[in-house]
Amino acid sequence: MARRSQGTKLHLAVLCLVVSCHAIGLSDLMERASQRSDKLHSLSTSLNKDLDSHFPPMGRVMMPRPSMCHTSSLQTPKDKEQALRVSENELISLARSLLLAWNDPLLLLSSEAPTLPHPSNGDISSKIRELQDYSKSLGDGLDILVNKMGPSSQYISSMPFKGGDLGNDKTSRLINFHFLMSCFRRDSHKIDSFLKVLRCRATKMRPETC
Amino acid sequence: MSSCGMCVHPGISHPGKPVLINCRSPEKETFTCRWDPGFDGGLPTTHHLYYQKEDSDGMYECPDYQAAGSNSCFFNKSHTSIWVNYNITVVAINSLGSTVSDPLEVDVMYIVQPNAPENVTVSVVETEESPHLLVKWEPPHEADTRSGWITLTYQLRLKRQNKKESEWEEYASGKQTQLIIYSLHPGEVYMVQLRCKLDHSLWSEWSTTTHTEVPDYILKERSIWIVVTVFSAFIILLVTFTLAMKRKYVKHCLLPPVPGPKISGLDTQLLKSGRSEDILSSLINQSFPPTISTKDQQVDYLLVFDSEQVTPDLQNGRTRTKNSIDHGCYNHSLLMKVNNEVKVGSREMVEQGYSEGLESTFRKTKSLSTDVTSHPCPQKKPFNNVTETPKQAPVSSKYRSLSHHKDLWDSLARHLDYRETVVKSQSNCDDKHNLSSQNIVTPSKAIGCVEVQRWTKSIGLQVQVPEMDKKQEDYSKVSVVENDNIVLLKRETVPLNCTSCKVRGNHSEKCLQKPCKPNMTVPAKEGVHIGSNGYVEPVIITLYKM
Predict the structure, then answer these.
(1) pLDDT of B49 over the 80 cut
(2) Best mutation target, A79, A185, A189, to test chain B (most B CBs within 10 A)
(3) ipTM score of complex
(4) pTM for this one?
(5) Residue of chain B with shortest Cα separation from A45
């Protein structure tokens, strides 16, 4: 009898320990997620600036319009009031959907970057790889977050990427590369904004995090 | 003049092309576009802004031309969409025509630039250690920081007003609306400016400068400096006082005195006093040439001369070939020859050499004395004693060299007039002795035997030892050798009858009976007195230079 009670006690202790190890608070998770999304957007902004520095003037005219981005089908809030009206589950769903939609394009971009006809394609290539790392890290963190938030937050919209390659000639490759990066810049800004709104809402106790 | 609607009249034309300067959103909720109207063509011109949104069709005109001032278009919240491209153009219209500006693609997410922070307050907080600045501010009033839609980060910069060419120091503040600045210069006026940015937006303009003065806090620290100053002054005084008290010791440490020669038989204090009479009396306590005033007087002579020829056995292993003392006890006509000069080396060595010479000479004398059968003088017991002399410390610390009394010696030399040997105190110990030639300084108490020496072309050292008391074992000590002429022996004896004899050259001596006095003064020119009994009676050893 005494042995059994000792065993159960031990079990409980181990269980508590395991649970406590994983018991990172929601606010902490949100803080980490928003930090990664912030870094993601900063990287994409700097990439775009690098590309802009050596862009053919004609390219701006020839560049596809942003509505041609493969993620434009996703309905996202367009201003602050709309964003504040969106539920937390939807916000995180939107963020995760957008993030997932860029996994494949980033792969393509990272494979095309070294051969890009651009003077600083080495820089661009390394930044793309960094983007991939942050993207994956953020995705994993959001997965953990949705596990905490409940099943209704786990819906993901699928936005498959259909672009096979960037083109054959140098100019079109450059233009398409630039176009994709500008799409990603906008989408990373969306992800960052949604997560920061989510962060503020999740930590009602601490308004200084907003 | 034909009416020509489209003709260009002098001074008027269709408007110039307006230029869209920029569009700005201060809080990510509204935005404002501004344009430069351009040349108006000399006619009243109106400007219209049209925009087209990416996700909807149709051209729309600016909803508000007034709110942001002239040549501007204000898009309020309902007309502002983010993550949507705006295609904006401005059209200038006058009576003669219209001109369309170049289009501008605008996405609100790219044109965010907040206003500067407001209500910047800087206060000086004074603590014990040092004051610091507490800077507080507020976000721009239109920014909504509570919903999470925007996140403001701030930056502060600081500069000293008085110091020229000083740079702005920048400090990042993150999301806080206050900052503490340390390491201030007291008494300086500081200028503070702030700016902020929204997430990834452009930085705002720097806020208006806030001036603040840091009070001079030297007054506070004065007490500390006073304590420090007093303490160090006290320490310095203590050290100075200690050094002053121990200045002799310090002086001894820093400037060690040069040891002087120690020649026994010489009173340095007396010499230092500088009175030549006293000095002479102390140095020369015998009449010169030596005379024996009483029967009992006997003269001991110690002969010092160059040793090479004469007394190799006098050397006690010392390498003092040039100085030696030979002591001979002769009969009347016993003469010795000394050939070479005796040079005086260092005085200590001389003393020692002499003392050893003394020893050897005494030994010899002893041996000689036994041979002198006709010597009527009583044996010299003191010889036995004398032989023990060298065991005494030869150097008397009381006596110092007379090197500096050269004039004294010169005067002595004049009186003593040495040419050849001198002699003796007579064997019969009467008070008369025959001087063959020289003056001999004789001690008042001859000891044992008559010694005759003759010096030829040499420097002879004649030592006259005052009579030794049986009770006392006193030995002559050479106190100084000076100028190759004179060597002084110093000796202390018990009080005896004081006699003084004048000895002079070939003249007969005049022996005067004088009461015992510790210091007899002798006029320098008169000659030499024999010193009084019982006191320091230096025996003068003269070196004769031939």
Answers:
(1) yes
(2) A79
(3) 0.84
(4) 0.56
(5) B200
